[in-house]
Amino acid sequence: MTRRQTILIAGPTASGKSALALRLAKEVDGWIVNADSMQVYDVLDVLTARPGPDDLREAPHFLYGHVAPSTAYSTGRWFADVEHFLKTEAAGDRPLIFVGGTGLYFRALLGGLSAMPDIPDAVRAYWREQDAKAGAAQLHAVLKEKDPQAAAILRPTDSQRIVRALEVIDASGRSIVDWQKETGTPLIDTVSARKIVIEPDRPWLGERIAMRFQAMIEKGAVEEVKALLALGLSTDLPAMRAIGVSEIAQMLDGAISPARAAELSTIATRQYAKRQMTWFRNQLGDDWERIAYPQT
Fold first, then answer.
1. Which structural domains are found in the chain, ordered by start?
2. Per-block average pLDDT, block size 10, for the chain (296 residues)?
3. Would strands 194-200 and 289-293 be described as parallel, antiparallel, or unpaired?
4. Assign residue 102 a region: left if phi > 0, alpha if psi is -120 to 50, beta otherwise?
5. What's this model's pTM, rounded to 2 decimal places?
6. Is residue 69 within 8 Å of 239, Cβ to Cβ?
C-alpha cells in the first residue's frame, strides 16, 4: 500500500472528470492514472474520449491506450498494472490522481482484489464456445439456474461477466459473488485519500453527451471504427462493445443514416451514464466528496 498523496475522481461519462483531474494535477504537481475500462484500449482514442494531445502536455497520464483491442482486459489486469506502476521509479512518491467511470476499478483500488479460483482451460473453452453459439441472453438463463446470486446482479447482455461467473461456479462450486467478498490488500491508503464523485445534473449531462458525440464524429471517430473493424475481431471483445462502434459500423454498412447512428449512440451513452450514476450513488460511501455539475 502506498501512502502518497492520492486523489480519486469518479463520475459518469461526459461529466467533466478529466478536466477536474487535470486542474488538480497542476495544483499538486501530480500525475493522472486512468480508471476507465474503455480508455485503456488502443485505436479508440476519440470514441472513448481519451485525453487529447493538449491534456497530455499539461500533465503526465498513465494506463491510457496501452491495451490492444484484441485483449479482453479485466479489473484484475488493471489492478496488476497499477500495482506495477506504483513500484516503478517513474512513479516515485509524487501525488497521483485516479480518474474514470469504472466503479469496479475504484472498488479494487480501495479494497483490494478478490481472490479467484484457477479456471481449467477446458472449462474456459467450454463457456467461451457456449457464448459464441448461444449468446449472452441464453447463458444468463443458465446462470440463473447455476448461480442465482450472480444472475441477479448481471445484465443479460453482459456476456463477458456472465461467462466469467459461469466459469467460476463450474471450477469452484462457489458463486463469484462469494469470491468477490473475500477482498485483498488495497493499493492506496484509503483513509488519507481524497475521494471525489461528480454528480451532474441529468439534463445538463444529456446535452453534453449529445454535443460530445457530434464532436467525436468531427474529430475522426468514424475512421477509428473503420480501423477497428479492419482488425477482424470478435464482437464479444470489450473494445468492440464500446458505445458507438456498432452504431457507426451499421452506418458504414448503409443500414442506418449518420443521424440515426448519432441518435442511437447518444441514447446508449445516456443509458450508460444513468447506470454509472446509480452505481456510484449506491456503492460509494459517505467518505466521498460529492460535487454537483454544473456548479451555481
1. 6-114+184-201+276-293 (3.40.50.300), 121-181 (1.10.20.140), 202-275 (1.10.287.890)
2. 84 96 96 97 96 94 96 91 90 92 94 83 90 92 95 91 94 91 84 95 96 95 97 91 96 97 97 95 93 77
3. parallel
4. beta
5. 0.83
6. yes
Can you read off the three cell numbers belonging to residue 247?
Answer: 452504431
The span from the CA of 142 to the CA of 211, in Å, is: 40
pLDDT, position 295: 65
Q: Which residues contact 40 (CB under 8 A, 6 or more apart)?
A: 34, 63, 64, 65, 66, 67, 73, 78
Residues in contact with 260: Cβ distance below 8 Å, sequence separation at least 6, in sequence order: 251
pLDDT computed for residue 1 by the predictor: 53
